Amino acid sequence: MTRDPVIIVGAGPAGLALATNLKLRGVDVVVVESEPSLPHDLRAGTFHPPTLEMLGELGILEEFLSIGIRVPRWQIRERREGVIVEWDLSLIGDETPFPFRFHCEQFKLTPLLLRRFESLGGEVRFSHPFLDAEQDEDGVAARVASPGGAETIRGRFLVGADGARSAVRQTMGVAFDGFTWPERFLVVGTEYDLAPHGFTPNAYIADPVDWSAIFKMPGDSPRGLWRILFPTDAELPEEELMREANIEALLQNFLQKPDPWPVVAKSTYRVHQRVAEDFRKGRMLLVGDAAHINNPLGAFGLNGALHGAFNLAPKLAAVWRDEAPPSLLDLYVRQRRAANVEFVQAQSIHNKRLLEERDPDVRARHFDELRETAADPARAKDYLLRSSMIWSVRRAASID
Fold this sequence. Notes:
This protein is an alpha+beta fold. It has a domain at about 5-70 and about 100-180 and about 275-355: 3-Layer(bba) Sandwich (FAD/NAD(P)-binding domain). It has helices at about 15-25, 50-55, 60-65, 105-120, 165-170, 240, 245-255, 300-320, 330-355, 360-375, 375-385, 390-400; strands at about 5-10, 30, 45, 70, 75-80, 80-90, 100-105, 125, 130-135, 140-145, 150-155, 155-160, 175-190, 200-205, 210-215, 225-230, 265-275, 280, 285, 290-295. The two termini are about 30 Å apart.
């Protein structure tokens, strides 16, 4: 029996992971992407243990692990006190084959996903922006702007994996509830090695004003690239924020050096905490940033997007093959929306407020609680199961 394909809008990590997973399950897929090539996103790059387990299902994990950095230990620090706690992920070695955080730029994962998808006979139609869609009881008619003019693609289902400004979500008429943090985040990339100064490749530095976060990435040289994230003055104009003197001042305040910092990359972005009111309207669904976005403190955004794609794939495949009723897709919504609201949103907001807490007594209590947790193996393991997103994946799976 011939069936119309699943249409996926967006060739980012979530869209390509879903597309590849569906192809492996024998589902016909059409992927459309507005950009002329794979997006080059510099922001995300930390992968948690359950995400690595999921990527293993696609047959790309061995190659992926060969191009990144394994981070078995990470820190929470205070700017003046130094290390508050250093977490050792070997404590969860009996819960996962990957007891580490894995650092690799997001834009290095998407080509691996694309090649795998293409090896299965899949194709991404680049330079095909999604315009709108209509659905009936049998399927969806999606309009896209192809290089030759407007084109209509017929599919059984349509999945919006098209990012925070999702045109699919807007077509569905779904609200994107939440808020935007007042400050912009500035990310500076440097090849200066922070390891001799005691920093692990992932560290969070608390301070009422000058908090920051550190992520070491593979970069383009053997030295690797240290990304340092700073909050910025919301009133400062973009051109002033990006001035060399301003960035040098931020870096010197972070860690004094006798010579200027070697800066090889810099970018700013707004940070949001939002969750779509619903992830499904009939035969249209949302996944990834189209469904939910959050601040990067804890590295839950990209991972949560991929977890959603892997949760949706087997359910959508079963419905596409008429082996399950469409109501099975509501289980995806219940599971992944709960995981995002209960954990990703709550924990990422908590992480930011912990770093920027101004009340000295509250800060002291938080740090004492962290030290006590780290000193108790059972509590430390529970903390790592949550911060590594193992708990949120299990929590989602428990929902029926």
